[in-house]
Amino acid sequence: MSYYMIDVEADGPIPGDYSMVCLGAVLVKPGLEQTFYSQLRPISDKWIPQALAVSGFSREETLAFPTAETEMQRLAAWIGETTNGQPMFISDNNGFDWQFVNWYFHHLVGKNPFGHSSSNLGSLYKGMQKDCFVNFKRLRKTKHTHHPVDDAKGNAEALLHMKTEMGLKIRLD
């Protein structure tokens, strides 16, 4: 079983009506050496300037990105090449990140290699601490920049810390 920490930046709150602008993924293993980055051309004419601004890209820049179909096929191929067993999706905000990745895979590739499940890093940490008011973000080493690979890497560092320093029982193949 391989865990993939995923982070998404988008130009609005939901897939279909709005677009995923970029995606970062990190295979969660010591060293965090295997990463994936993608920029995706918008699939919709709708966009919210404030949402897009988080990514640091202009609308004009995003219109020159590779097609979403191409990039989701590339992500599926990378997952297939790097996974050991069933790939597992985990993110800081899986309510947001999962909806985009799941929608894009089903609509543009035909299936989601992650299956039907995702995990939330923050909820996992709260459960470990038995405290719904704690936050894992202090466990990150990589600065949170809103570049999705940086953000996924920082979250993967937190998950590795939870395993090695806090005793989380998780198999990272």
TrEMBL record:
<dbReference type="GO" id="GO:0003676">
    <property type="term" value="F:nucleic acid binding"/>
</dbReference>
<protein>
    <submittedName>
        <fullName>Uncharacterized protein</fullName>
    </submittedName>
</protein>
<dbReference type="InterPro" id="IPR036397">
    <property type="entry name" value="RNaseH_sf"/>
</dbReference>
<dbReference type="InterPro" id="IPR012337">
    <property type="entry name" value="RNaseH-like_sf"/>
</dbReference>
